[in-house]
Design a protein that fits this description.
The protein is an alpha+beta fold. It has two domains: about 100 residues, Double Stranded RNA Binding Domain (2-Layer Sandwich); about 80 residues, SHC Adaptor Protein, CATH 3.30.505.50. Helix content is about 30%, strand content about 40%. The protein has three helices and nine strands; from the N terminus they run E-H-E-E-E-H-E-E-H-E-E-E. The strands form two sheets. It has a five-stranded mixed β-sheet with strand order 5-6-7-8-9. Strand 6, helix 3 and strand 7 form a beta-alpha-beta unit. Helix 1 runs parallel beside helix 2 and helix 2 packs antiparallel against helix 3. The relative contact order is 0.11. Keywords: Cytoplasm, Ribonucleoprotein, Ribosomal protein, Translation regulation. One of its GO terms (molecular function) is ribosomal small subunit binding. It is found in: Cytoplasm. Pfam families: Ribosom_S30AE_C, Ribosomal_S30AE.
Length: about 190
């Protein structure tokens, strides 16, 4: 596994780097066969250290976790514990879904855009055009999954929303985290 360990305005020493590599390798090896790389970023806010970790798995999933504590090692350990919990849940769910899945997950390409936020106040005039300003454009993958797998992917990635194609269908569906904490599912094929 490749590691990218860095500090945001703090120095990450060799001792901490070795600790992260050892502990993260042990944590991930229990639940994922072939993790490809891990990115660990340490930062400090006030009196607290913060650790954010993203582990890319060979299945195409990204596991994300973060931890905070007054000590930098404790912040990492908290983050690592949360990551292990996510991976444990993922592996348990994967065993349940693996019985039904005979083919690997198909992935389709799509365009993804980031739009500029509106800088207009209510007192100002209307903008000249209603076309939003695109500040970034990139390719993104849309996996072909069951609804349960889509929820699992969304939770593991820590994302608020996931766009996917239901297996055997050509339509695009969305699962998202609602404000009440439940999961919402949008299936436009059932609308018409």
């Amino acid at each position: 596994m490749r590691y990218q360990i860095s500090g945001h305005q703090i120095d990450v020493g060799e001792s901490l780097t070795n600790h992260v590599k050892t502990e993260l390798a042990d944590a991930v090896a229990k639940y994922a066969e072939r993790p490809t790389d891990a990115q660990v970023i340490f930062s400090k806010r006030g009196h607290e250290y913060q650790c954010e970790t993203v582990v890319h798995l060979s299945t195409g999933l990204n596991a994300k976790a973060s931890g905070r504590a007054s000590e930098i090692y404790t912040a990492f350990d908290d983050c690592c514990e949360k990551l292990q919990k996510q991976l444990r849940r993922y592996k348990r769910r994967l065993k349940d879904h693996f019985k039904d899945r005979k083919e690997p997950v198909e992935v389709f390409g799509a365009a993804s855009y980031i739009l500029a936020a509106s800088e207009h106040d209510a007192d100002e005039q209307e903008p000249e055009t209603l076309q939003p300003i695109i500040i970034a454009e990139m390719e993104t993958d849309i996996p072909s999954l069951s609804v349960g797998e889509a929820v699992m992917h969304m939770e593991l990635a820590g994302a608020p929303v996931l766009v996917f194609r239901p297996e055997g269908k050509s339509s695009v569906n969305v699962v998202y985290r609602r404000e009440d904490g439940n999961i919402g599912w949008i299936d436009p094929s059932d609308l018409g």
